[in-house]
Design brief:
The chain is built from seven helices and nine strands. By secondary structure, it is of the alpha/beta class. The radius of gyration is 16 Å and the shape is globular.
């Protein structure tokens, strides 16, 4: 069993994705089926992923279960900065359908992580912004807040894993919805092993990368 107790203060055993259902004062933990809760907190419910193992199924299960106007995805390894959530929420309340925590905008940064992965991620994000017109500088992070308006309007096509964040951001942009960002600091995990599969997922990232590049043509029609 994946043990992330150091990152989450023994609240859960297992690798978790936390969905904050903003506006409903409710937090939703999406876990693997064999995870058992080790905490009791008010306004928190445990939702078990029944779609199958893997990060994509965990995210899809949580997005499907969410009922509040806004849904936040953040990683269970503590790499995302929770102090940025309030700013993301305010932008969503102001009309943004996607709010990205961005490492590559002024004020954001990335601490640690493999050099190749960092370089490819930065190149993808900045090229999509400057050449494709995507309103955010960080295309590959999954530290994102989505409106239920967007989630109810699109069908998730991702088949691999973390390309989901890029897919939803590109689709919102192509639909003419508002996409915003806040600077954030991402820190590489200090415990456990990452499940990111660069070579396996790269072709799926590229699919949505090129869809994003073509977005400016769609928007300008």
């Amino acid at each position: 069993m994946r043990n992330e107790e150091n990152a989450y203060q023994s609240w859960l055993w297992g690798e978790v994705l936390l969905f904050g259902l903003l506006g409903a004062l409710l937090a939703l933990f999406v876990t693997y089926p064999d995870v058992r809760p080790t905490f009791e907190l008010p306004q928190v419910r445990l939702h078990k992923n029944t779609l199958g193992r893997g990060v994509l199924n965990a995210m899809k299960s949580g997005l499907r279960a969410a009922r509040a106007p806004y849904v936040l995805i953040t990683m269970g390894d503590g790499s995302d900065d929770p102090s940025d959530i309030d700013s993301m929420y305010e932008l969503a309340r102001g009309g943004a359908d996607v709010v990205a925590g961005s490492r590559y905008v002024r004020g954001g940064r990335q601490v640690g992580g493999p050099l190749l992965k960092r370089t490819m991620s930065r190149a993808a994000g900045l090229s999509l912004h400057w050449l494709g017109g995507l309103p955010v500088h960080d295309a590959t992070s999954n530290f994102r807040l989505y409106s239920k308006r967007l989630l109810n309007q699109v069908t998730i096509e991702s088949r691999g894993g973390f390309e989901l964040g890029l897919e939803l951001t590109v689709k919102a942009y192509r639909l003419g919805m508002r996409v915003a960002e806040v600077p954030t600091t991402w820190r590489d995990r200090t415990a456990g092993q990452s499940r990111f599969k660069l070579l396996e997922w790269l072709p799926r990232y590229l699919h949505w990368y090129w869809r994003g590049m073509a977005g400016r043509l769609v928007i300008n029609r």
